[in-house]
Amino acid sequence: MSMAVPAMPSIPRSFLAFDFGLRRVGVASGNSVTRQATPMKTVSAEGEQRFAEIARLIAQWQPDALVVGVPFHPDGAEHDNTRRARRFARQLHGRFGLPVHEVDERYTTTEAAAAGARDLDAASAAIILDQYLRNLE
Hints:
alpha/beta, five-stranded mixed β-sheet, 4 helices, globular, disordered N terminus
């Protein structure tokens, strides 16, 4: 008689996700248990002020990893904002020492607007994080 060995549950992980923009950064939170993201807020500060606000959010939420939406043209080609978002992802990793995952964020703002979101940036960050969470193993 053989018995199936139950799968070990994966360790719950929490995430903060960012919809990067030059003037605003949308923020969402989520975890690997519910696999759902929640829009949080939009950080309207720039430069060091932006990172100070993000540092407060990271200290408050204690995420295991960060997720950054990276935009592309509809055909998948990179553009200036692709490079800016990737630079932002590298800065997050360098400043906070957390793993940073990139997600293709094409059409997230359109999707957030179609859903009637009040805060498009935070809603877009939640869509980005939802995409990431759906692909977790």
